[in-house]
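As a warm-up, study this chain.
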Amino acid sequence: MQRILRLRSLSPARWLYLSRQRLPLVRNAVRHYQMGEFLKEARDHYSGTMAEVVEKIRKRTDVEIGYHVVPKSREHLLKHQPKPEQLPPRSMQDSYTTVKLPLSAELISERYINHMGRIRIGRLMEDMDMFAVWLCHRHIKMPDLPAGVGMPYTFVTLLVDRVDFSNIELIQVNKDIEISGFVSFAGRTSMEITIYVRQLLDDQYLNVTKATFLMVARNATNTGPAPVNPIKPANEMEQRCFDEALQRQNHRKSANAESVFISQPLEHEQALLYSLLQRTTPPDSFDLNKRILPHNCHWMADCQRSTVMNSFPENRNAQNTIFGGYLMRQAVELAFIMASIHVGGRPLLKCISDISFMRPVKVNVFLQMTAYVVYTAHDYVQLMLVAQNVDAKSGEVTTTNTFYLTYKAENIVDEVLPGSYREMLWYIHGRRKFISALGLNLELPADKSELESAAK
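Now compare it with the structure written out below.
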């Protein structure tokens, strides 16, 4: 029986040897859809098509059609903002609903298809973000709100925890897609949204995506926080889902504190960095500024693509800032270009993790996006994409978003190697995101013979 050692138990010397090897990766993640299926059977609520949902949101928030350089004031709605004690508890069934993407209509399906005849993931992400906003609307219940008054809320995407993809190659772009979801956790001003994407094929549902969004409730003018209804699980299944969501909340807090940009790399990661330096430094040279590139490798600085785009009002919200879903679509499509160039083919997107929204993107600034390949492992490519506001008048550049995307290629991909200490931190950061995103457990054979046998 093959003897296995975990990474943290390895000595630095052992790390130096093993870090040079191409190692097999062991999957330990399992995908579950039980809660979504349970709610679908318990409460099969239908909200119509995505186009109809967008119109419902517009009416509920009392947003006028048409662009205005200075948005219509919503200050009159501030007096209707409820206090926490005025908001009754809600169950997950209360917010659960389903919408349809009518891809069976040819004019609509063309917006969702790529040149390979597959679904455009970026376009799908855009709809999922809007659907998350709709679930926030369904969760909020204000008994004291007068009839005919717009909802005094603004819902903002704070982050996307993760979006797992499967069966992408099996989706049929001429059949309707079903998006369902519910509010799985509520804090004082935040809501966790769980979303499922499925397609009915031959009387069976094909699971495509499970996503976790974190939304923040703001007041009508987006100048301060707003309270949300608390969650009161309606049954044992909802309680279990609530407990899992609470664990995710705690994990997010600890993960932020352990970021490689805040705390120094762990011991085994430092050994990995040292091995990377050894691999790229000539053995007969004392000049650490002189670097060599091993065979089938690329410098990280050469594995990036950037684009600058002009934002337009059609992608704005009531405050004349750009929708998070639009940013996701652009990021996913640029990342796909970078991943395709690196692997020399058309890789499949396996996971999007940790999309952070740090600042809004205004309509009157340019948007710059840069996709970096920060880590590779066998046939996987891990990308980091950074979005920035570019103010043409002042020249100021501010970071607005970060995205992490994991792609799988058909063949072993060339390694990407860091050329500076900053890139080394990106490398470690990307490696952590890769392990977390795919639920991998990097377990290594104990000796060289077993290592070579496993590699075959």
